[in-house]
Structure formats: C-alpha cells, structure tokens
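Q: What does the assembly look like in three dimensions?
Context provided by user:
Components: two
Sequences:
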Amino acid sequence: MRRAAQDLLIGAAFSVLSGLSLLSLSELKSGRPQAASQRSPSASFAAALQTPSKVASYDIDARLDTSAHRITGHETIHFVNRSSVQLNELWFHLYLNAFKNDKTLFLRSPFGAGRSGDKAHEYGYVDVKKLSLVGGDGADLWPSRDRHSPDDPDDETDIRLPLPNPIEPGASLSLELTFEDQLPEIVERMGYSGSFHFLGQWFPKLARLEPNGSFAHFSFHAQSEFFADFGDYDVTLDVPEAFRVGASGRLDPEPISHDPGRKRLRYLAPDVHDFAWTAWDKFEMRSERIAGTDVSVLYPPHQERNAEAELDSVRFALPHFNALYGAYPYPTLTLVHPPEAAENAGGMEYPTLITTGGPWYATLGGGHFIDIVTIHELGHQWFYGLVASNEHASPFLDEGLNSYAEAEAMEARYGAGAVFDGFGLSVSSSALNRAFSAARGADEPIAQGAADFASFRNLAAIVYSRTATVMATMGRVYGEERVARAVGNYTRRFRFQHPDPSDFLAVMRDELGADAASALSTALFARGTVDYLVREVVSAPEPTAAGVFDGPDGRQNKKPDPPHAIGQYAGRVVVYRHGTLELPVDIELTCEDGTRQRSHWDGHGFTHNVDYVGPSPVVAVSVDPEQRILLDDDLTNNWVSSKTVRAPRNFERGLYLAQLLLGAVGP
Amino acid sequence: MIQAVLPSKSGRLPASAAASSLLWVSRTLLGLLVAYPVLSAIDATGIGNGPERDAALFRPGSLLLLEAVRVGLPWFDSALKIALLLSALSALVELLPLSCAFDLLCAEERPFGARISRSIQCFPRFLALGAIALAAQVALLLGASLLEEALKAALQTADERLLSIAPIALFALALLASLWLYGVLDLARAAVVARDLGARGALLRALTLLREQPRDVLSGSYASAAAAAFAYLTAAWVVAKIDLAQPLGSRIALCFAVHQGAVLFGIAWRVRWLRRALALNAALRESVGD
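A: Here is the predicted structure of the complete assembly.
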C-alpha cells in the first residue's frame, strides 16, 4: 500500500510538472520586434480631415420580436441626385431576400454558402409593405417595381423601382417605406441563434449612385460583399428590456418613451454607408476609451479572456492604424463577439461595428487567432469603411489591402510569431500569406470581381493572401516605409470616397515610381508571376591562357600552368527568371573559404550571368537570399550547392519524433 | 518470493540499466527506420540545398518550413503513410526486446543466447496479448464516442465552456482507462516471462492482480506514464529555447542530448514499472493462472 501511495505521489508530481511544462511551452515567445510607436510614421502622415458627399441618408425605426425573430420597420430615405444626369429610376438592394429560398443567387451557389461557409438552416426574407414619396400624394410606388433581379427570375435581392417623376441633377427626394423582416437562423452575419440576434443587410437600401448616373447595383452573390453611398443614419431600435444592444454609431443618451417590458434606443451614425446591430439577453460588456474613441466589446458569458484579448488588440492597432492610414473619425467602435453557436455572425465589418469570434479557449496556446480577426476587422474601418471602394467589383481594394494592413500590424506587434508563437515554432503572417498565395495565386487575376472567381477558396487565396503577398513583396523590394507611406497616401486621399483600382495604382506610382507600378499592375491585373532559379554552380581553376600567340615580339608558345601553381578560380553562374514579373533581385555566391560575394540584377530579361574570379572556388549560389520576393513561385529552386548537403537538424528532429511515435504505438 | 525475481548484484551492468539500454537501442534503431522515408522526402524538396542547409527550416517565421511543406506535400503524403506502416511493424518487432528486457529483470544470469531464444518463444504469446489489448482499446474508444454523443445531448442547454470541456474530460478519462489497460497488459507479459504461462493464463493472473491490488497496478503504470510525459514536455520546453537557425553544431548536439535524455528517462521509468509488474506477479499466490 505504501509503495502504491509512493507511485501515486510520484505520478501526481510528474503530472503537475508536465502541466507546468505545457503552460511554459505555450507561452514561449520569440523575441519581440520593435515597439509600435517606434514604427509609427512621421507627423507628415497626419490625416486630412474631410467629410463625405452624402447621397443616401436613412431614418429607421425598427421593432425586434425576439420570439418570432421578426422585425417591423419604418424607414425614411433622404436621397440627393449627385450625378450629372437626370434619374428615372432607383435601385434597391433587398439582401435579406438572399435567404428566401434555395433558388436565390446566394443559396444556389455550387460552393455551398458563400463566405461564412454555411447554408441557411431556416429561410429569411424582407417584405416591403409600402413605399411612397414624402410630401407626395401617398400613393404606393412599390407595386410598380420589377419583381426580381435583372435576368434572374429566382432572385429578389436587386430590385429596380421606376420613378413617377425624374430627379434632376442636384435635386433631392425623400421616400417613406414600411417593411417586415423574417430572420433566418444565423447565416452570413444575419439572423438569430436562440435569443442571439445579428442584423447586417437587414433593411431596404439604395444601391450606390455613380457620378455618371448609373447605379452600382448587383444581386447578393455568395462570394461578394457590398457597396453603398455615404449618408447619415438615425436608427431607433425597439427591443425587450432585458436585451443588450450593440450597433453602428453612438447611442443617443436622451430617453425615449417605450412600451412596458421593452426599451427604445436611438443610434446616430453620421458619415457612414451601412448600419448593423445586434441584440442578446446574455451579452456581457466591457468598455474603454482608446486613442480618443469609446470602444465597447460585447461578448458571451465566460469569454472574458477573449474580450480582454480583443481590447488589447484594439489598444495596439487603433493608434497604429491612425498613424498609418489617417485618424479614425468616429466617436465609437463596437466589437461583437458572437456566441459559438452563432459563429456565422463572426469576422465581419460594418461602419463603427465589427464582429470577431472564436471559442472561449482561443487565447490558450500559441495561436493569435483572436488578435488576427480583431485587427483584420478593425483594419476594415479604413479599407471599406472610410475608403469605400466597390467590394463587389474590386474586392482586392478592401479585403486584399486590408490583409496587407493586418499582416503589417500583426508583425509590428508580434514579429515572426504573428500567427503562431509557441512550442518553439513561430509562423509569421507573411509566410502564411505566401503559402496560400503560392498554392493558388496564378489561377486567376487578383483584380477582378468577387463573383468572377471560380470559387470562394480561390477568392480567399488570391484576394486576401496574394494581394497581401504582392504588397509585402513591394515593401521588401522597394522599401517597407515607402510602401506604407504610399498606402497611407491612398487612404487619406480617398477618405470618404469610392476609389477604383486605377486610383490606387496612381498613388502607388507617385510614391514608388514607374517600374514598381508596372510590376504592381502586372501582379494585380495580369496574373503576374515570377520564379527566380539557378540550376548549377561550377567554378574551376583559371590557368593563364596557353597556346600559340602572335604578338609584336613574334610568335610565343605558352604552356599551361601546372595545377599547383594556379591560385585563381573562375566560374559563371546563370540565373533564370520565369514568369512575367520583373523585380530586382540580389544574387549571392558562397565560396569554399566561407567568403560571400553579392551582385544585383534589375530583373529585366530572362537570364542573368554572374561571372566570378577569386581565390576560392564557388560552392553555392543563392538568388534572393533574404527572400524579399515572396511572390517567387518556388523558393526551393533559388539556390544550389556543389557540396554534399547534410541535414543534421532534420536527422535529429526526425529521429526523436519517430521515437515518440514508437513510444505511442509500441508495446 | 519478491527477492527471488529482483536482480542480484554482480559486476556486470545492473539489470535495470541493461534493460533500459536494450529498449533505448531498439527504439533508436527502429526510429531511424521509421524516420527514413520522411527525411528522404524533406531532402527531395531541395529546401536544404542552400548555403544555410537545413537551418533554413528553423528560421523564425517558418517561411521556408511552410514552403517545404507546400512543395513536398505529394512526397510527404506517401512518406508519412510508409512511416506509419513501418511504425506499426516496428511495434511488433519491439515485442522481442521487451520480452528480453523482462527476462533481464527476472533472471539476470541467463546467457545472452538463451535470452534471445526465450524472447522468441514468448513472442506469440506477447502478440496474442497485444491483440487482446488492442481489441479492448477499440471497445474503449467506441464506448467513449457513444458517451460523447450522449453527453452532447445532455449538455445541449449548458454554456459553451461546459460543452467544450466535456469531451476533453471524457478524453482524459479514456486516457486513464487506457493506462489501466496497458498496466494489465504488462502484468500479463510479466507472467508470461516469469512463470512461462500461456496468454490466457497470464491474462487471468493479471486480472486477478488488478482485482486484488488495483491501487498498486494503477499507481505503478500511472507513475511511469506521468514521468514519460514530464520528460517529453520538459525536453520540448528546453529545446524550444535553442535557436537551431544558427549554424552551430553544438546546438544540434545539445538538442540531441536533451531529446535522447528524455527518451531514456521515459524508458527508465517504464523499466521501473516492469520490475514492479514482475514483483507483483511474484507476490501473487502460485496457483492463479496455472
């Protein structure tokens, strides 16, 4: 019995020590990079204050029935024709109808379910009950609408409404609508899960009016996001008293009369282009003022660690992005961490409101998932929120540039362990983006519409990862500070505007020059690829020239030097460039005596010769030794060595892992 | 009786040390065999052909490690399958040194040739016992998965944290039950070697021991497993601090020493438990299992 107790005690002691080891391992971090403040750009980056040109503003009064999962709403749209032509029609986006039945453009997607990866479990839709002109005769204009999206009788997300009277350039009108939403079980950041409700794309909304008088209207595609005009949103929400609400904009402190057992909350969100909100009776909340902004985190019970991690990410990233891309201009920022059962509401951006996500244990171990999702969605406040490019037509301008911004911020914060840092292994954002980019990067062009991608997996690899890799490559080749400054110039110049890819390229050309802009253009628009490679390394003793020579002193017969007398070696290395991207690159020769010699190739042409003469033979060649060109299709052919390669680290690690495996499966 | 099976003092390597060395050598040799296809696949990627050689794979950020995985994925797929097959075969082969280790622990003075011959004689019975343990393990896993489904249904209304912890707790319980199972297996193996019993008789004896002295059986096998886990995690903790991206051979040697030290430590604690299993067997009344 005493022996058993002794064994048990020993076992328990080892278990405790093992737990401590595990904890230490998960908290092992590699060296921290320089502080964010040290990387912050100079005062010349100060934001230029602007206000948007407002086209469509909304006053909405909505009542949420949390049992039936229905919203009844009254909406007034104030519209100004800021185009140069007379308008005879308006286009409405009724994106909740994407979940109306399995034949909608969204739900018939062969890839299952779009960005969030899940189909609707219950259907949802929006019914416009009446639409009339404010100040008109009260006639209902809605029956005169087109019944379905253009050329798509099964879809009702993109609806044309003819106007009884045209709107002249500069003129305005107000429309009054009543509508009812039936919410689906949570899908694509819309609907309910138990008593949790998340409402994105929940109200009838006008498509963006382009300067030429056309509307940038499109059906809700499973791979696409959104595009809208700036305006002011004044939204009053009527919810059960026990529910906590998070919404775009700031809460008006003025009390509003309400029915017993309910409450009415008024949110004011000026200068934005969308409005989203959430309501749940189990939300817990933390608030903090960060960089002049009131930041709130709404999160499920028992997720305090995640909430703290998200606040901590904002503490770092908000001032970081303010410095790089111009000051965040809104007084509030709301973070919503949905419950695990409603994970399809997570990882999304709306003006002044972002959703994060992850299980309660997401901060354990060495992964930085919570930081990544928080910083990514926060970055969208610039790349989507303030610089409101067309997410449907050019998703790389929001998701791609934002992935670059996210990677830059994560590496500024965590260095080489930006994605994962624990158990002796670190994975950086740029390495992970490069891996995804290299896997599918050349399948399709980056700069194309969201709906044009063959699949969402392609879109994710190409729009997110490849754009980030293109930008990281530009930074490594032409200077990270210059690229950061160029992107900052872009976000400032086009704040509260709707730039297109040519605007972005023009700013990059101004900052980086024509060569860089040309490479960037090829990478973005023309499926530009590059693969630098070297095939062999040869260097041999260089004897003095032997043979018969006729000179002014007559004919001379020179014999070859004996081998022991030769002190010089000569060789030639040929470096090849495959693909269409011409990027400057370094080439490094390593000699037998350990010396290294470096030369530079501007990347023009398909081959480049490096001639060598020196006292020691060349034993290895490496093209792009610092891996600046992350776009390189294959990094394993960037070097070659004439010596037998030994891999003692691999041997040591491989043997140990095999021993562990045998320990697990063996007797 | 217990004294009879304990190794006597002699000028040669103590029995425990000899058994530990034997198990370490066999695991290292078989480990080399299992690792070979994967190491060859890594070589085939060409990632280590540069001036930094394989140090490039250990650089912070893992750019080239991910590239090696991406480029070598088709080779790794095959190499891993072969490695798994080899490890399964190696597990069978390891029964011979295990039997030999038991023999060393209970009869130190036997000639080497006789030990080998005895190990070969015991092999079929070890194999049969292993098959029974494997079947029991499968039944255990099935039971655990059924229990998990039932737990999910029962906890549907519980909060997220409880929902996530429940399967982890279930896994921990299954792990504990496995330890129990393998504790019994070792007792049976000890009975095969020490008393020359058949598989059925040895198992009967082991189960009797479990019934009569459950705490001894559990605590002994638990201490052995906990010690091994501690050694491996400590090794991981130490090695994580060694930067292998630097071109220094001493760092590689240090990693090797730490890892092999951990393997040896784990094996030594296992040998300690095997001795205990022999002693428990010896203390049980003679007639059981005969």
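Follow-up: The CA atoms of residues 60 and 245 of chain B lie 8 Å apart.
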